[in-house]
Design goal:
two-stranded antiparallel sheet, 205 residues, five-stranded mixed beta barrel, alpha+beta
């Protein structure tokens, strides 16, 4: 099951809240009392929306994210798994099934998620819940293991990555017999989703 344990806050929300508080104070000197009450009420509504915007980011293993891809597509998530680099890009994975594959939309896909371009358009403050991250890492380690030597400059590592998950609404896996690539990511379009990274956290060795 997915868990919520990390809070995000938009700096823009703070600026809006401060502006509304200042505006409300000015209105109280410039307009009749009834209008003041109405202004304060409206400010309260907007502030409630700003506070609600500081919502919980779900903390997921790679398998959890892929198994509920439709639910989390387009949303901020924190993924826990094995991060590694190849000549086709950087990825995070978990061995969800035989041969490092899993079922997404009824088809077999590699059980990994590619890293896309960094997320832009706002500041996200991530508060890492270390106990929850450790719990998720223990889940991953039941099926997945680090593979590269610790001395390798391209070694894999355990990582938690916050970002926005993205995938095509209708996935089409690669068809090797017809030499047709899939519409996913990575080599031959064989990776079903990608993550636009905001911030990451590497677990201690």
């Amino acid at each position: 099951m997915a868990s919520d344990g990390v809070t995000r806050e938009k700096e823009l929300g703070k600026d809006v809240a401060q502006f509304l508080i200042t505006a409300s104070a000015w209105v109280s000197f410039a307009v009749p009392f009834d209008r003041v009450k109405r202004s304060i009420y409206l400010v309260g509504l907007v502030l409630s929306a700003v506070i609600a915007h500081a919502q919980q980011i779900p903390v997921l293993t790679v398998c959890e994210a892929l198994h509920e891809l439709q639910k989390y597509n387009g949303k901020l998530v924190i993924l826990v798994g094995r991060a590694f680099f190849t000549f086709d890009g950087t990825f995070i994975n978990e061995d969800c099934g035989p041969g490092g594959t899993t079922t997404v939309q009824g088809k077999q896909w590699l059980s990994m998620i590619a890293f896309g371009s960094p997320e832009t358009g706002g500041t996200v403050v991530v508060r890492w819940d270390h106990d929850l991250l450790s719990q998720k890492l223990n889940q991953v380690r039941q099926t997945t293991h680090l593979e590269s030597p610790s001395s390798s400059p391209l070694r894999d590592r355990w990582s938690a990555v916050c970002g926005r998950l993205e995938a095509p609404q209708k996935l089409r896996p690669p068809n090797r017999s017809k030499l047709r690539p899939g519409n996913g990511y990575g080599a031959n379009g064989s990776v079903p989703a990608r993550l636009h990274k905001v911030q990451d956290y590497d677990f201690p060795n």
